[in-house]
Amino acid sequence: MQHETHAGHEHHDAPGTTKVTWSMAAQATLHCLTGCAIGEVLGMVIGTALGWGNVPTMILAIVLAFVFGYSLTLRGVLRAGVDFKTAFRVALAADTLSIAVMELIDNGVIALWPSAMDAGLSDALFWGALAVSLALAFVVTTPVNRWMIGRGKGHAVVHQYHH
After folding, report:
1. Mind listing the pLDDT tens digit for each residue in 56-72?
2. For the chain: N or C, fewer Cβ within 10 A?
3. Residues 155, 3: contact at Cβ < 8 Å?
4. How far apart are the first and last CA of the chain?
5. Dist. CA 26–CA 128, nearest whole Å
6. By C-alpha distance, which of 57, 53, 59 is closest to 44?
7. Following DSSP, what letter does each residue of 84-140 receive, concatenated?
8. 89 to each of 94, 126, 160, how far by Cα in Å?
9. CA-based angle 73:74:80, to the nearest 5?
10. What does each C-alpha distance from 81 to 23, 87, 126 come to in angstroms?
11. pLDDT tens, 87-115?
12. Has this prediction a pTM greater than 0.90?
């Protein structure tokens, strides 16, 4: 989901004065979830396909989740005509806490789910545990994003580039 499609947002000049709805928070979280899910799935698939152990596979998945999460935000901000250095700073400010919370929940569920870390790509457990962990990460991260947007942080920073 791209930032330009966030309909119904109210924009105010002063940070912390945005009226935040659950819909706004959910849309920001879906944006974050998209990047995280791409990175998580790709990392897990690569690590599992190469026969890597659990720790290197999880590290790769987390790194790729951050890369894809930041990349989605960078793409939108760069299209608004912002230079790369500024766009990169905006992406860091907008997504770091959201991605970190999402990754903590997602990977925590996978690590604690019995046998999930040992499931192969052809196992229903692999895909089921991944889907459940991402859904739970969305539920936990949405209030975090709502809190951040309400304080002029997180995705509220990105919205100033999409008028």
Report:
1. 999 999 999 999 999 99
2. C
3. yes
4. 17
5. 22
6. 57
7. HHHHHHHHHHHHHHHHHHHHHHHHHHHHHSTTGGG--TT-HHHHHHHHHHHHHHHHH
8. 8, 35, 14
9. 100
10. 27, 9, 41
11. 899 889 889 999 999 999 999 999 999 99
12. no
How much of the chain, in percent, has pLDDT values that exceed 70?
Answer: 83
What gap in Å lies between CA 65 and CA 149, rounded to an integer?
A: 21
Please give the structure tokens belonging to residue 51. Answer: 């026969």
Contact 10, 40 (CB under 8 A): no
The position carrying tokens 């700073």 is 89
Distances in Å between the alpha carbon of 3 and those of 51, 75, 110?
Answer: 37, 10, 29
CA distance linking residue 49 with residue 68, whole number of Å: 20
155/150 Cα distance (integer angstroms): 10
Tell me how many helices (H) and strands (E) the chain has.
5, 0
